[in-house]
């Protein structure tokens, strides 16, 4: 069970920069679970600690956890060894993503891709300029996990984790939070083609090229690979969207 690096986890549990409503807290944690950033069986911090990290009142956090329990995303155990634990909905992820894809128009997907490519390119450039070799240990582990993954759902989760780890390697808390936000909006959709082994292989090659460019401290090449990775994924995604529209 590979977990996020400490830098990426800090972004997941960073204080909310919006009004600290129950819905906002539940969405932040729920998105992290659905994306696989918080893994199945992982124990969340204690209520007082987690509320402090997120910058919300304990009562707000408790209501948010209650909403997540109702969604089946967390479970609470009492007694020794108890706490709140993640329950990752692996069996429903693909269905959720397919419905989300069909809700987008082609124009919206292209616009999202333009924004995401710009952010991903900036992250890659900064990572190439700032990351030391130890900063890339977590992305390299995720890189190998992605290459080895046979299940499309696992591929989707690992891909999201890899991109968040790369954002953390760029050493920008704001960009890491933006990467997580974009992952919830379009990142998981880009993983839908991973059921196809060819698409998985293409993504794997691009991941390796990206890590190679960052490791070689080549900002221009890293940015170019990152942008092409996003735009290429969206082209495949639009094909799926059009097929889904015709089928329905």
Question: What is the fold's blueprint, element by element?
Answer:
Blueprint lengths: L5 H7 L9 H13 L12 H8 L3 H13 L3 E4 L5 E4 L6 H10 L3 H25 L6 H12 L3 H18 L3 H13 L1 H4 L6 H19 L3 H29 L1
Antiparallel strand pairs: 1-2
Helix pairs in contact: 1-9, 2-4, 3-4, 6-8, 6-9, 6-11, 6-12, 7-8, 7-11, 8-9, 11-12
What keyword list fits this structure?
248 residues, mainly alpha, Arc Repressor Mutant, subunit A, Four Helix Bundle (Hemerythrin (Met), subunit A), 2 domains, two-stranded antiparallel sheet, 12 helices, 2 strands
What does this structure look like?
Residues 19-89 form the HTH gntR-type domain. The chain has helices at residues 6-12, 22-34, 47-54, 58-70, 93-102, 106-130, 137-148, 152-169, 173-185, 187-190, 197-215, 219-247; strands spanning 74-77, 83-86. The chain starts with 5 loop residues before the first helix and ends with a helix. The protein contains 12 helices and 2 strands. The chain has 248 residues and is mostly helical. Helix 3 crosses helix 4 (58-70) and helix 6 (106-130) packs across helix 8. A hairpin with a 5-residue loop joins strand 1 (74-77) and strand 2.
């Amino acid at each position: 069970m590979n977990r996020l690096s400490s830098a990426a986890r800090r972004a997941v549990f960073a204080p909310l920069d919006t009004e600290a409503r129950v819905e906002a807290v539940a969405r932040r944690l729920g998105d992290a679970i659905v994306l696989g950033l918080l893994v199945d069986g992982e124990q969340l911090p204690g209520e007082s600690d987690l509320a402090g990290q997120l910058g919300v009142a304990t009562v707000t956090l408790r209501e948010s956890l209650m909403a997540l329990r109702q969604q089946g995303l967390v479970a609470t155990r009492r007694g020794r060894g108890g706490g709140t634990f993640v329950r990752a909905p692996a069996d429903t992820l693909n269905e959720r993503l397919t419905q989300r894809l069909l809700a987008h128009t082609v124009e919206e997907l292209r616009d999202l891709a333009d924004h995401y490519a710009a952010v991903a390119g900036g992250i890659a450039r900064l990572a190439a300029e700032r990351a030391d070799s130890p900063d890339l240990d977590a992305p390299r582990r995720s890189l190998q996990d992605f290459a080895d993954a046979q299940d499309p759902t696992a591929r989707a989760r690992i891909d999201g984790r890899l991109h968040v780890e790369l954002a953390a390697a760029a050493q920008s808390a704001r960009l890491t939070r933006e990467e997580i936000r974009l992952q919830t909006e379009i990142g998981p959709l880009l993983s839908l083609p991973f059921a196809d082994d060819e698409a998985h292989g293409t993504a794997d090659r691009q991941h390796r090229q990206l890590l190679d460019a960052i490791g070689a401290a080549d900002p221009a090449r890293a940015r170019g690979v990152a942008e092409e990775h996003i735009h290429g994924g969206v082209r495949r995604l639009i094909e799926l969207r059009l097929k889904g529209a015709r089928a329905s």
